[in-house]
Amino acid sequence: MLALWRNSRVRGWIFQLVALTLFLYFGWSLWDNLQTNLASRGITTGFNFLNTEAGFGIISHLIDYSESSTYGRAFLVGLLNTLLVSVLGIFLATLLGLLIGVGRLSNNWLISRLALGYVELIRNIPLLLQIFFWYFAVLRSLPSPRQSVNWGELFFLNNRGIYMPAPIPEQGFGWAGWALLLTLIGVVLLFRWAVRRQHQTGRIFPRWRVSIGLLIVVPLLVLALQGFPLSWELPALKGFNFKGGLVMIPEFMAILLALTIYTASYIAEIVRSGIESVNRGQTEAARSLGLTHGQTLRLIILPQALRVIIPPLTSQYLNLLKNSSLAAAVAYPELVSVFAGTVLNQTGQAVEVIAITMGVYLLISLLISLLMNWYNHKMKLVER
Amino acid sequence: MKRIFIAALAATAMTATTGASADTLSTVKGKGFVQCGVGQGLPGFSSPDAQGKWQGIDVDVCRAVAAAVFGNAEKVKYTHLSAKERFTALQSGEIDILVRNTTETFTRDTGLGLDFAGINYYDGQGFMVRKDLGVQSAKELSGAAVCTNMGTTTEMNAADYFRSNGMEYKIVAFEKMDEVVAAYDAGRCDVFTTDRSGLAAQRTKLKNSADHVILPETISKEPLGPVVRHGDNRWGDIVRWSLRAMKNAEEMGVSSDNVDAMRADKRNPSRNRLLGTVGNMGEKLGLSNDWSYNIIKQVGNYGQMYDRHLGPTTTINLPRGINHLWTNGGIQYAAPIR
Ligand SMILES: N[C@@H](CCC(=O)N[C@@H](CS)C(=O)NCC(=O)O)C(=O)O
Fold first, then answer.
1. Ligand 1 atom 19, closest CA
2. In 10 A of CB B53, how many CB atoms?
3. ipTM of this model?
4. At B47, phi and psi to the nearest 5?
5. A284 within a domain of the structure (yes/no)
6. Which of B220, B255, B289 is at the close of a domain?
7. Owning domain of residue A284
8. Does some domain include residue A280?
9. Which of A93, B69, B218, B301 could cross-link to A263 by cystine, CB 3.0-4.6 Å?
10. Mean pLDDT lowest for which of A214-228, A312-326, B55-69?
11. What gap in Å lies between CA A223 and CA A182, rounded to an integer?
């Protein structure tokens, strides 16, 4: 017996087992208490509520939704709205952050000072304040629907949003989609070929310009061949507000603007530190080989800087996703506001609703991490 | 995210050992004050005065309970809650009572683990619009953008009303009332909807309140009152009878000004019971027998409370209407203390 105890492996196992038992017991007693407490207070439990009628309206939804839809549907609407601002926010913040980060290192005194000012100002103001600022700045500066800014009877801008014509695909439009898909596959093949040829012969093929051109021209050509099977629904003022067309509500603009501007200030610093981590000798070497300033940045510096940039960039993306939940303050119906707000309040099922919400955030965060890790792996120094 | 975190905490709080908050009276006596969940600033119901002291008929219900339990109406601590947060705060034991313009409904009573302990204001939902829209009736509101706060009966009633009248609408639901008011004031919505009392109160916060009208329609029943956790009947009784004591006092003409004289004058038996000079009503609640005397002395009767916060001398000036006692043509009717 004692001999067994003296064996450090066995001892390790025993400790692990004890810890696991304690942990399981702790988890079980939490669960048990929860059940007893919920039952004694008469709080409804379970996930059946997801199938009952929601009975409340949501101002903007990417999928069909009405008051008679279910709570489950309301959840989807919220989730899609979260994904919409997050994806767009990540895209725009990256672009803006890149610009400002590069601007910070510019030799032009004015540009680098402006970029510095931007970073210092934006990083030091709480995001919620910025969201309110943009929301009320947007609202107060826009006219009422009857005094809308009117661009050629097609686009209208007022304090209810930007209204634009909505494309309505008709019979035969699907072909353009297929054409786009095929071109996409073609472009991927083209890229592979161009890279291989460059490695072998050193000859450069303008792959970006050609690909983008193809992606635009081919589907358009297919559409033209069928006489453009597409009609437009125009927005028009009816009663209090505009009806028809697509609308981008001020709540969405405010939260997108705030998230982009705020996150870009962090991304700019990440980009700057990434670029600065690349030895200056590299620049000098590239320039002496005859590469232009832009080429040096694109071909020599950024690929190396990316290795430093990607890991902290990932956490900024995750921050942006989580920060999008602040949108509830300005009535943008994302996941936290619709589901962990209205739905939770109406059903009272806090435990279930919060569990689902946290699960979803976790899942999206893990996906982003996974994607970025994969990209990071790809960007690692490849030794030949 | 922060909200999620709080709600998650609340959810975990519910996993705490059973019994911890099953006896609210003992917990409250133990800590020495009542933790009361009220609004975030609604004149007449719960809003800070010039000295920063919270005032209103919701705040006064909390004070009445503190007077009953401790003989001191000041022994209250306030938690200011948005509509969305309020029920989780009560369920999780963060607060002992919720008095925050909360409408008694079937679902809240049966599904949310709550009990309603009386009504301190009978209300109904209304609409406010800008005068220059030229709207006379809610029936003309088809296509309007409607601002309100989320997690309320308001949000649901508006949906029902527009749906049942075959009208379209766009709901813009904010978490906090202040943002609703600011957005409506900035022109984001054509309509601002909430309980009529809320409309009257929030209207005072608008840049130019004379530019706005409240439409005649009342589209719902909103009986507002204090809420406690389901399953703690003794605590429920205390809150329920504290409010009833105030209404009974008004009915018998007992006010904070004359309560001492009335207590000395023992000619009226039902008044004696109300003021605790005979019997042991207080003991049956687990309190001292002067529980209701303390309420009336320190907080006043229902009518005094109403006039102080909503009456003609206030900026809100809400006609008392159905909130008159039944003896005055209203529907405020409290079971007798006997
Ligand atoms: N009675 C409704 C609405 C309650 C509500 O949120 N009322 C608004 C306006 S009356 C409010 O702002 N209340 C108090 C506050 O936030 O201070 C309910 O219980 O759902």
1. B102
2. 9
3. 0.84
4. -155, 150
5. yes
6. B220
7. 71-145+248-379
8. yes
9. A93
10. A214-228
11. 14
